[in-house]
Amino acid sequence: MRYFAYLLALLAGVALSFEGAIYGELGKSIGQLETSFYNFFM
After folding, report:
1. Which of 20, 31, 32, 41 could form a disulfide with 27 if both were Cys (CB 3.0 to 4.6 A apart)?
2. pTM attached to this predicted model
3. Residue 20 and residue 42: Cα distance in Å, rounded?
4. CA-CA distance, 27 to 20, in Å (whole number)?
5. pLDDT over 80 at 6, yes or no
6. What is the CB-side half-sphere exposure of residue 22 using CA atoms within 13 A?
7. Alpha-carbon torsion (28, 31, 37, 42), positive or negative
8. How many Å apart are CA 1 and CA 22, to the nearest integer?
9. What are the domain boundaries of the chain?
């Protein structure tokens, strides 16, 4: 059970890092305000 929690925390960190990279690139193409708005509703 403990290893499952570690794995889940690791996957959550990877997902947040990946999400930040996507929103960073998205902000360059459509604008930072629209990206923040999109991020809020996801």
Report:
1. 32
2. 0.58
3. 13
4. 10
5. yes
6. 9
7. negative
8. 32
9. 2-41
Q: Write down the residue that tokens 């889940």 correspond to.
A: 8
How many residues are there in the chain?
A: 42
The separation between CA 22 and the C-alpha centre of its own chain, rounded to angstroms, equals 7
Instruction: Please give the backbone phi and psi of residue 31, each rounded to the nearest 5 degrees, phi first.
Output: 110, 150
* Helix, strand, coil percentages in the chain from 3-state DSSP, rounded to 5: 95, 0, 5
Q: Is the dihedral of CA 36, 38, 40, 42 positive or negative?
A: negative
More confident residue, 6 or 34: 6
**How is residue 8 written in tokens?**
């889940």
Contacts of 39 (CB under 8 A, 6+ apart): 23
Separation CA 30–CA 36 (nearest Å) = 11
